[in-house]
């Protein structure tokens, strides 16, 4: 374990510095510095609840980076010790779980879990056998998480109490990263709101005594264990999509509705050869984002979620373009193939994906795990009218971008050289911008994320080339009036051939069938 040699004064101050953690994780846990830093950074991302706090944090990091003091700034970071110990203990779930692959997209979430059911209709699954097995393996995950918490609840409470076997209300509230309370399955409140042990606590008396009221760990453990369950109402089950089944759960929610009454999970699955758009309404109102968005098992689809989001999990998609707004926590991409993702996010995680390109502004180093082949990273390359407002709402800093500095946490084969950043960065000559073909309310008129110089020059070169081509065609048609129709016919013919060969024909057809006058909630299914 992490002994007192490295804790030092942290036990009394209840703050834990990253330098102490890196030294302790290397000597006591045998972790490399990269993995230790990854755990610390991920905890920081998950523990910052307010976007304003996250934005202020990223501005301080950006200032340190611009003054060449980034390493010094990072070495001074501190976190709450009891909460960090609880977070580390939860990571043991992956070691004890039978689910060695795939890893959960996000756990702990606020609460709840998922269950899966497979249709017995005999239809063929949409996924390949490997991905189908990886998705159905999560069927027992919610129950395993629940049993893990019940089995180790006493140990986790002792960690929060720093081995004193009595816990205060403030220490118990650290369970908010793992549990929630509620009088019903659809109305959740932060953990600690209804614990009866401190209901008659006289705060003024405790202040005078300079000692908060404490409760025995075993008493709280017994109370929580008897009431612990998975919230399947707020976290609906995942079903393995079939070739003829499309399921989209994205209810229209009043932006003024209380957060506790909203669904915690929205999902998009089984969408094939179609387009889905979610954006603010015509008045620019944006509802509170769900805790988690699952985008899984879609094929040849174009998905636009032009909203500020919290967590996004993309699983088992093939030949899709997924353009997200802003994500305040993490985007997780697993088991995808030939997918193009565009997003501004706090954190990014990629695993078991092939021939996937990610255009991103990422405020932390992108994380690469096992099974990635042909995955490319590129700077963020689009904008929409409400983007800058959504960046503020999500706490994402467009000027702090670590897209070109990924962290590889996969176990490389002995015969292969370890991957490096240059292996996954998109060459500038292959870079281009993407246009969002939908109008939203807002003041953003250009990409707010600065591009590296070589990518900027490449865009200018392509614009200049296109302009020169247009001028040459106009000149040719003016010089030879009779050949103008033949020139346009040849141009249209080659353009149609390019649409088919490049795979862009589906996107054009989807846009033709999309009806903007019906608002941003329209789905154009299987445009033919």
Strand content: 15-25%
Quickly give the structural class: alpha/beta
Number-wise, the strands total 20
CA radius of gyration = 26 Å
Helix fraction?
25-40%
**What do the pLDDT scores average to?**
79
Instruction: Label the overall shape.
Output: globular
Uncertain runs with pLDDT below 50, 5 residues or more?
3-12, 98-125, 204-208, 517-528
Distance between the termini: 60 Å
Largest sheet: 12 strands, mixed
Task: Specify the number of helices.
Answer: 17
Question: What are the key terms here?
Answer:
alpha/beta, twelve-stranded mixed sheet, two-stranded antiparallel sheet, 17 helices, 20 strands
Write the layout of secondary structure elements.
Elements: H1 4-7, H2 10-13, E1 15-17, H3 18-28, H4 33-47, H5 51-66, H6 70-75, E2 78-80, H7 81-90, H8 92-96, E3 116-117, H9 129-136, H10 141-160, E4 166-168, H11 169-172, E5 180-184, E6 187-190, H12 203-209, E7 214-216, H13 217-225, E8 238-239, E9 247-249, E10 265-269, E11 275-278, E12 292-296, E13 302-315, E14 321-334, E15 340-351, E16 357-362, E17 367-368, E18 376-379, H14 387-394, E19 407-408, H15 453-479, H16 484-502, H17 505-513, E20 523-524
Parallel strand pairs: 3-8, 10-12, 11-13, 12-13, 13-14, 14-15, 15-16, 15-17, 16-18, 17-19
Antiparallel strand pairs: 1-2, 4-7, 5-6, 9-10, 11-20
Describe, in plain words, how this protein is organized in 3D.
Helices cover 34% and strands 19% of the residues. Residues 3-12, 98-125, 204-208 and 517-528 have low confidence and may be disordered. The protein has 528 residues and is an alpha/beta fold. The chain has helices at residues 4-7, 10-13, 18-28, 33-47, 51-66, 70-75, 81-90, 92-96, 129-136, 141-160, 169-172, 203-209, 217-225, 387-394, 453-479, 484-502, 505-513; strands spanning 15-17, 78-80, 116-117, 166-168, 180-184, 187-190, 214-216, 238-239, 247-249, 265-269, 275-278, 292-296, 302-315, 321-334, 340-351, 357-362, 367-368, 376-379, 407-408, 523-524. It has 17 helices and 20 strands.
């Amino acid at each position: 374990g992490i002994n007192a040699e490295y804790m030092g004064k942290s036990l009394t101050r209840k703050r834990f510095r990253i330098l102490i953690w890196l030294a302790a994780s290397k000597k006591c846990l045998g972790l490399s510095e990269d993995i230790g830093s990854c755990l610390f950074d991920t905890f920081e991302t998950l523990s910052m609840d307010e976007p304003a706090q996250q934005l202020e944090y990223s501005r301080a990091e950006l200032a340190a980076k611009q003054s060449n003091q980034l390493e010094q700034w990072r070495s001074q970071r501190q976190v709450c010790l009891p909460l960090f110990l609880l977070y580390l203990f939860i990571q043991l779930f992956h070691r004890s779980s039978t689910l060695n692959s795939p890893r959960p997209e996000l756990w702990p979430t606020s609460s709840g879990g998922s269950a899966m059911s497979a249709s017995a209709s005999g239809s063929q699954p949409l996924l390949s056998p490997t991905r189908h097995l990886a998705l159905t393996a999560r069927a027992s995950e919610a129950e395993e998480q629940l049993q893990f918490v019940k089995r180790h609840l006493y140990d986790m409470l002792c960690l929060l109490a720093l081995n004193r076997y009595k816990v205060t209300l403030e220490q118990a509230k650290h369970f908010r990263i793992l549990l929630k309370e509620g009088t019903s399955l659809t109305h959740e409140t932060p953990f600690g709101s209804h614990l009866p042990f401190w209901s008659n606590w006289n705060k003024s008396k405790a202040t005078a005594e300079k000692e908060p009221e404490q409760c025995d760990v075993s008493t709280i453990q017994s109370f929580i264990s008897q009431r612990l369950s998975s919230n399947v109402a707020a976290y609906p089950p995942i079903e393995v999509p079939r070739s003829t089944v499309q399921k989209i759960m994205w209810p229209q929610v009043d932006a003024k509705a209380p957060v506790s009454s909203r669904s915690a999970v929205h999902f998009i699955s089984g969408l094939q050869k179609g387009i889905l758009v979610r954006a603010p309404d015509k008045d620019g109102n944006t509802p509170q984002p769900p805790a988690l968005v699952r985008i899984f098992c879609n094929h040849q689809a174009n998905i636009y979620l032009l909203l500020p989001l919290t967590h996004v999990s993309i699983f088992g998609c093939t030949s899709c373009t997924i353009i997200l707004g802003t994500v305040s926590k993490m985007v997780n991409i697993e088991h995808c193939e030939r997918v193009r993702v565009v997003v501004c996010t706090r954190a990014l995680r990629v695993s078991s994906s092939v021939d996937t390109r990610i255009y991103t502004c990422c405020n932390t180093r992108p994380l690469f795990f096992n099974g990635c082949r042909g995955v490319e990273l590129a700077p963020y390359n689009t904008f929409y009218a409400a983007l800058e407002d959504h960046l503020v709402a999500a706490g994402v800093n467009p000027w702090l971008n670590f897209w070109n500095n990924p962290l590889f946490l996969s176990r490389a084969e002995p015969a292969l050289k370890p991957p490096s950043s240059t292996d996954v960065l998109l060459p500038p000559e292959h870079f281009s911008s993407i246009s969002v073909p939908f109008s939203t309310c807002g003041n953003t008129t250009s990409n707010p994320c600065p591009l590296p110089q070589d990518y900027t020059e490449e865009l200018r070169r392509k614009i200049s080339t296109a302009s020169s081509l247009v001028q040459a065609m106009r000149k040719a048609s003016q010089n030879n009036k009779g050949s103008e129709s033949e020139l346009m016919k040849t141009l249209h013919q080659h353009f149609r051939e390019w649409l088919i060969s490049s795979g862009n024909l589906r996107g054009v057809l989807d846009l033709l069938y999309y009806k903007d006058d019906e608002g941003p909630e329209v789905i154009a299914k299987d445009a033919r």
